[in-house]
User: Fold these one by one.
Assistant:
Number 1:
Amino acid sequence: MPAIDSSLKWRILVPVAGLLIVAGLASGVVAYFLAKNEASELLDYQLRQLTRIVATERFSVAATALPPNDQDTDVEDDFVVLAWNRDGDLVHRTTGAPPIARPTLGFSTVSVGDARWRIFSETRHQVQVAVAQRLELRTELASAGALQALLPVLALVPLLGVVIGWIVLRS
């Protein structure tokens, strides 16, 4: 009887382990993409809020660029702010900002040279203000957050596999 008992255990354990792996992979992929999408939406919200804060400033033709960043920060990781008057003249551009053309209002994605930028733009006080962030940085941030959301799934699937295997083989 031990051979039959052992065979039955393995006939139960192999499909259950296979289902666990498939379910773990599926839930991991779903968790990753949901978290990445959520992070992207959060970054868009951040762009919108920053634009609204900056748009409360009064820009004029005499507006000057912001001072250079601290040495501890990377210019590529910064937001850039641009502002145009009602005639379409650029009246403000932060240090390190690329020559982004006047964008459409709301969200847009533009290419400047070899870089792509996510922009939110709105008009306040007859000035169009746009805040932009490198798309590469946004993707990097969203992916990093999504990977962190995936860690519990990656930890639980092997743990569940060990527990299920132990239960089936012990019975």
Number 2:
Amino acid sequence: MQTQDARKVFVFFSFSCPVCATYDQVLSRWSQTMPAGWSAEFIPVAVPDKGNYMAARAFYAVQDADPARLPAFMSAAYAQIHEGGMEMENPQTWAKAVAAAKVQGFEKAWVNVTQARLESAFAKLLTYGVDATPSLAIGGRYVINPDSVMGDSGMFIQLANGMVSKVIQNR
């Protein structure tokens, strides 16, 4: 158990993942329903390859520059990749997603995203043994993904709620 994460849900995702694209809005809405004292944090899969690093860096740049636009950016990024056929390695993918989401201050924030931050995201991925996306690490203890419920999005959210409740009850 990761005790420092006892009141957190980490939402691990990859912009290249079609299942993540499908769950994008569901997880965005669900993350706003955490119990008092809890938080949800989206963590991009920052495995050390050019596409995933660029995706993670773009995510963190938007999170820093214009956090209110993050959900719109994520939806736009998924659309660029899954509907527009853009590659994660292509800087135009992120430029188009930023423009579509009307993000302000992206360029300045982009240069300030550190290697250490990307490595921290990768370390969390390893700490929780995430091997599929989207995955939720709940309360520093449990990791679930849609495979846990055979892809049923309603059941996935019910399971996530149940696991948060279980962590709260077992404190």
Number 3:
Amino acid sequence: MSSRLPVAAPPRSAWRAEWLRLTAVCAVIATAVDATLLERKKGFFTGGFLAVDHLRSAPEAALFLGASLLADAAVVGVLVAIGLWCARFVPLTRTARSAAIIALAVAPLAIANFISYELQKYLGDAFDIGLMFDLTGRSVEEFFAVAASHLGSPLALVTGGGLCVAGAVWV
């Protein structure tokens, strides 16, 4: 019996495996954060007091989580691919590269979740972003001018978080 050394995976296969692994990790993180915020705000999984919309059975919860995981994977998959492409040009260890790519892929979803959660907490369920946009004369500049006074602390939090992630990746 001859012993053969394992053949190294072709670069495309290795890239695909890393992309799948990082996409799965990012999708699980995004889905877990989404599910936690939905449960905390609306009692989506347990029903809660006066909850209008909630899941009534384990199969409904599993179906919802599966669909959410698939949707999150579709979004973060593109961002992971961009991160993998950009990481080719930066000399990082494998762990640091993975951490940077996960941060890059999850950050837009985390920021969107944070903003929508904070907006709903501040304005309630009656808030309609389309109506607000119409009230500003469908002007993006006016929309941001009105919102600018309320964006200071979230912007500082996002900037600080980004600097912490960049520092952690750098080290």
